[in-house]
Design goal:
about 260 residues; 8-stranded mixed sheet; Rossmann fold
């Protein structure tokens, strides 16, 4: 896996091993736009990646004739897109599209799943709005970021938070890393060189046919955004990258406490 990290990134791929990753997004297709290149690189390197999609995407699409079948259609699209980048495990919280909030019900579901999978990295949408490209900041996207960020600290590692989970055998867990995407550019501190996985990413996005009435425009936009991320990372011209805000949740310098 080829990584170019900005100088301020706390994550060094040579020192920090990643074996399991759990990704949280709001809707089917969010993860493919935000991180499918990075995920393809991870799975190629043997990393086990799982998805948790918080809504069923029931408010998505453009064709009124698809309303009755849109949930099943989007779930199948996401299953096929995930398979293209080496992901098999997909979980849903079945929240209503457009109504997602950082409620305790949602946060409990996040804590439960993280404690079950116990990943090295939780990858999530960013809780801060991107004013330069507001389409990245759908209210559901922001709600995912807020719910996940609240869940990973302190509830995830506090055995007395959602005590029914511990009683069911899901012990508290200290997450090492939180990776956030689709946030403001000024928060970016880590870039992944996905030049070798651009076509994997676009192929995964193309599967979501219910969501993209203009495939050519979508392709141009996605390629342009990845080139711009690579330029911000200082990669050579022609390279493509995905950008993240990486947060060290628990590490050698962490002081325990709630």
């Amino acid at each position: 896996m080829s990584i170019n990290a900005a100088a301020q990134s706390p994550f060094n791929p040579d020192n920090h091993r990643v074996e399991r990753v759990l990704c949280f997004t709001a809707h089917p297709d969010d993860i493919d736009f935000g991180a499918a290149g990075t995920i393809a690189a991870w799975t190629k390197a043997g990393v086990e990646v799982s998805y948790c999609i918080m809504t069923d995407g029931d408010a998505g699409g453009f064709d009124p004739a698809q309303r009755a079948e849109i949930v099943a259609m989007r779930a199948e699209e996401q299953r096929r897109a995930a398979a293209l980048v080496g992901v098999k495990g997909i979980h849903y919280l079945h929240e209503r599209d457009g109504y997602l909030g950082p409620t305790h019900e949602v946060m409990r579901g996040v804590v439960k799943l993280i404690r079950e999978i116990r990943p090295d990295v939780v990858l999530s949408m960013h809780p801060e709005r991107n004013w330069n490209r507001i389409q990245k900041s759908h209210p559901d996207h922001l709600a995912v970021g807020e719910a996940v960020t609240r869940a990973v600290y302190p509830a995830l590692e506090n055995p007395f938070a959602y005590p029914e989970l511990a009683e069911a055998g899901l012990a508290a867990y200290k997450l090492p890393w939180l990776w956030l995407f689709a946030g403001p550019e000024e928060r970016e501190n880590h870039f992944v060189d996905v030049t070798d996985h651009v076509e994997n990413k676009l192929e995964a996005i193309h599967v979501h046919t219910s969501q993209h009435p203009d495939v050519d425009a979508m392709d141009r936009t996605v390629r342009s955004l990845m080139l711009a991320s690579a330029a911000r990372a200082g990669l050579p011209p022609g390279c493509s990258a995905e950008a993240f805000h990486v947060v060290a949740v628990n590490g050698s310098g962490t002081i325990a406490g709630f």
